[in-house]
């Protein structure tokens, strides 16, 4: 008996799911990001309105004053869905582990001056609580925002903020005794220089509009905080004094901030371009929260950099304003 094997090409009737095809076209194969994100927001046939908010459906676009014809337009240029996001963060975790091994094997922490180590802990340890606020706020955006392209990366961002808090904690334990964490908490709760920033974070925790919260946390505050602390303070102030180990052990945080800025700016650009009403609303929120964040960070900048603190903070604000201008938001 002989068996003849033949190859036969089976042409698929379509290249993706129906709900994805309406965005990318039925004849065009969709990426995993598109299939996991576009058109996946539940929009109808909800069982009942939540008893804790009967004015809205469970998923309700009207929770934000921003109006969009299609919330699927707020796409992430990084094209993160769960798979790509976890793989990217795993690679970064491996890199930071290698940095810890390098710093430990060369004894770089022990070679730091006590004054440099103490200043590093004084400035960075309270930021664990700022990152925790960022975690809570982005979880809120994920819960009450609308459209998977907007809410899914917000949840990834929430976990990234938690990771930033954990990296700062780990840095504190590498630089000093565990008591340094409690000292940072005490400063966050009682030191007058941290209270304006603490007030800012606590006020954002009760913001109701998820898009305004997105601006207040991810653009206005983080857009000034991270360049100020991990650029001007760590890279430009601590490293020249022998604190290279600090830059190595916190390398993930500024890298993540720069990467996340692509997503944040893309969201603002698309939402502002939708209508003049959106643009005016976003510009007002940006100016309000950016001004307040700059004021709240002023004492922190002085604590970190002394007389050069105000200039470094202004540079961070100028950079933020430039980002706003590039995405079409007039801050005047």
TrEMBL record:
Coiled-coil stretches noted in the UniProt entry, renumbered to this chain: none
Keyword vocabulary terms for this entry: Monooxygenase, Oxidoreductase, Plasmid
Membrane-spanning segments: none
MF GO annotations: oxidoreductase activity, acting on paired donors, with incorporation or reduction of molecular oxygen, NAD(P)H as one donor, and incorporation of one atom of oxygen
Name of this chain's protein: Phenol hydroxylase
Originating species: Polaromonas hydrogenivorans
């Amino acid at each position: 008996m002989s068996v003849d094997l033949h190859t036969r090409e089976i042409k698929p009737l379509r290249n993706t799911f129906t709900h994805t095809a309406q965005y990318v076209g039925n004849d065009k194969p969709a990426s995993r990001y598109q299939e996991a994100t576009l058109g996946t927001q539940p929009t109808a046939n909800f069982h009942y309105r939540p008893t804790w908010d009967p004015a809205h459906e469970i998923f309700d676009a009207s929770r934000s004053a921003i109006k969009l014809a299609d919330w699927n337009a707020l796409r992430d240029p990084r094209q993160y869905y769960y798979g790509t996001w976890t793989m990217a963060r795993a690679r970064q975790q491996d890199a930071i582990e290698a940095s810890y091994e390098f710093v430990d094997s060369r004894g770089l922490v022990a070679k730091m001056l006590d004054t440099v180590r103490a200043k590093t802990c004084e400035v960075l340890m309270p930021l664990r609580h700022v990152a925790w606020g960022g975690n809570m706020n982005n979880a809120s955006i994920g819960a009450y925002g609308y459209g998977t392209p907007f809410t899914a990366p917000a949840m990834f961002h929430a976990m990234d903020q938690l990771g930033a808090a954990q990296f700062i904690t780990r840095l504190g334990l590498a630089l000093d005794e565990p008591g340094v964490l409690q000292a940072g908490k005490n400063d966050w709760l009682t030191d007058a220089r941290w209270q304006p920033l603490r007030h800012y974070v606590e006020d954002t925790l009760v913001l109701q509009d998820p898009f305004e919260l997105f601006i207040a946390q991810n653009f206005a505050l983080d857009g000034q905080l991270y360049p100020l602390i991990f650029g001007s303070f760590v890279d430009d102030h601590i490293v020249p004094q022998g604190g290279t180990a600090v830059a190595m052990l916190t390398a993930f945080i500024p890298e993540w901030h720069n990467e996340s800025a692509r997503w944040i700016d893309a969201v603002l650009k698309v939402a502002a371009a939708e209508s003049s009403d959106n643009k005016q609303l976003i510009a007002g929120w940006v100016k309000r929260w950016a001004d307040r964040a700059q004021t709240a960070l002023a004492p922190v900048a002085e604590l970190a950099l002394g007389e050069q603190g105000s200039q470094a903070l202004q540079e961070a604000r100028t950079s933020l304003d430039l980002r706003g201008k590039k995405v079409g938001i007039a801050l005047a």
